[in-house]
Fold each of these.
Amino acid sequence: MESSFRDGRSISTRFDRYKDILMQHEGTIIRPPNEGSSILLQVAVGCSHNKCTFCGAYKGERFRIKDRETVSQDIAYAARHCRDQRRLFLCGGDALVLPQARLQEILGEIRGQLPWVTRVGAYGSAKAVGLKSDSQLMELRDAGMGIVYMGLESGDDETLARVCKHGNSEAIIHQGLRIKQAGMRLSVTVLLGLGGVERSSIHARATGQVLTRMDPQHVGALTLMLMENTPLHAQWQRGDFELPDAQGMLTELRTMLECTTLTRGLFLANHASNYLPLKVRLPSGKQAALEQIDRALAGHEPLKDERFRAL
Ligand code: SF4
């Protein structure tokens, strides 16, 4: 997946082809779909939790915060070569877990050297957000952090416990609301199929209800694909986990969307893993989207071929 350049920099061809990634990226670089045009500044390698049974993204990678010199060199590189990119994403499975002083240092350097950057984003787990006080979250916002991407995955506590996600739904709701109260945008990711066939409808309904309570500006619904290097894949092979089929996933999507009420937000299910690409503006677009899902369930809308689904 990686090819080296003469100056030792590397490019992760699997994820992006933009010049912004000609940086000293190590291991796996993952960013949300809507950060595809952002400067990708890696501040940590791996994920500090790394225990979710469905996630193979950072398996085998030991979590560590990248050293100051490397991050500074990458910011200097961006200052020379990324002058037309207005957004920057701090890469790392849970970049918000970095100590407050280090995050402020990085945000200060970004503001000083990349003054054209208008928004910085990062992944932040409920655990990482919980380690910051309200005033620290506001300090991050004032320093340029504009959006936090939080993985809810499921609103069903039984499902969260089974997949070893850190924290329960109440904790995730609480920390998500703190992000918004601090003045940052909140984006929440959920995962269709995570409850298996057994908890499919419970998972879908509970997730919609939790999303309603979090009321984020942005929801990203992905569809579970089992990765071979994960414990959940092993459970599936043993027959201990049954993955819903395309119809089952669509039914979940319908229930989840029906149970989700946002004041004003986007519900996106247009990730490469989804069978039916949807981009729904809530609350106005809900009814039309539900009707589209119903047409798909009745076989009147084409679904993405299994071969073209991807993570
Ligand atoms: S899903 Fe997120 S928190 Fe869980 S192991 Fe993967 S990167 Fe870490």
Amino acid sequence: MITLITFAPSFGQIAASPFCVKAIWLLNMSGEDWQREDSTDPRNMPKQKLPAIRVDGQVIADSDNIRAFLESRGADFDGGLSEMEKGSRAFIRMAEEHIYFHNVLARWGDDDVWPVIRDTYFAQIPKPLRGFITGKLRKNLLTGMKTQGLGRLSAQERLERLEPDLQAITTRLWQGPFLFGDMPTAADASVAPMLAGLRATPGNGLAKMRIAGDRMLCRYIDHCQNMLDMPQVYDVTSTAVSEPLCA
Ligand SMILES: N[C@@H](CCC(=O)N[C@@H](CS)C(=O)NCC(=O)O)C(=O)O
């Protein structure tokens, strides 16, 4: 049995981190038996981040490493894809190395949203200490976002930077219910949680409102989220046919 160490659910998402949601997708798609163990503190994890899995006494951290581990046991997340379509890796990088940071800034960088994030993610820290401890964490994180680059852009500039990514995703969704056809692939496991996380962010930030107002993106997110509640529908070993998204 594989144990997924994950952040707890929040804001209607099965896990607070889109990378943890991705790991849940991959575990479900792999057909492996797994259980979750919620954690609030990743500091004792090999990469000081979540998700991680524990299996046979070994801890494997990072969702990409989790993917590689599941593939080493026979999972084939991109089974139906041609060699050309396996360029879907680029969508994964776009989601994880770009859209994700929009998510981070929407949550940690917006003064109106931050108090909700603080009191949700760090509820276990006693109130008198919470502001002080989380204030330092927030400052460090926002410094990191300046280094990354997006943290130097205004919310409007960030929205303009995000737009072509959303267009690329939408263009794919005109072709079928998932990014690469009728069945979910690893690209959906990364892209859908990032979009869902942005849409689920408290407040009315520009990126959230852009996604929440896009019918096709919302149908895609909803479709994917429903599947997380019904893993048998998208277990790659199952023959169940999913409902078309854009019929
Ligand atoms: N590349 C990693 C990214 C994981 C990640 O960034 N996790 C964040 C949550 S979204 C985390 O654990 N942050 C805790 C911290 O930085 O202290 C993966 O794919 O698993």
